[in-house]
Predict the 3D structure of the following.
Amino acid sequence: MEIKCPKCKKRYDVDDANAGRQILTVCPRCGNQFNYTVPVQNVVIAAPVAAPVAAPVATAIQQPLTTTQPETVTTHYCSNCGNLVEDGKAFCPECGASQQNLPASNNTTTYQDEQVYATQQPAYEPQRLHNRNKTTAGLLAIFLGGLGAHKFYLGQIVWGIVYLVLCWTYIPALVAFIEGIMFFTSSEESFDAKYNYQ
């Protein structure tokens, strides 16, 4: 039997029903739900309905049955690597540093539909741990580099021992001379970022 949507005037077929009976239907074009009374004669009677009382006949337009509430999680920054860590976690998932006895921050991260919305994320600022000088490192590399003096100065103890053990081959002296030139040609910012900051 063919009926017509009262909203968009689309004509479409539905299963035949008994004359005088009301059926609930959904327009496949505009999604309008309305009650349709099967006429005794071929007269179309349609009345809009505010709230449906039964499941719609057409399944082309479906709405979600339930809505999920967003999950709110408070986070803080790891003092070792600066990674975001949820409050209550014992260790940082990135570097494994202990997160106990740290004050909770005001950062709030909301997870909803696999999307992360974060607020109040200050930029991570590395801390200056040493006051090593690139000129000193360059001079040590050129004049005492065969003995690994510049490696000991830069805190690379293992490499310093390797240079010291292999000093009789003159290979560490050649490599250290090249490293000394690289120290002199590098900028203060790049040297500090590599050897003075963490």
About this structure: The beta strands are 2-4, 11-13, 22-26, 33-37, 45-48, 71-77, 84-86, 107-112, 115-118. The chain has five helices and nine strands. Helices lie at 134-144, 149-153, 157-165, 171-185, 188-195. The chain has a mean pLDDT of 75.
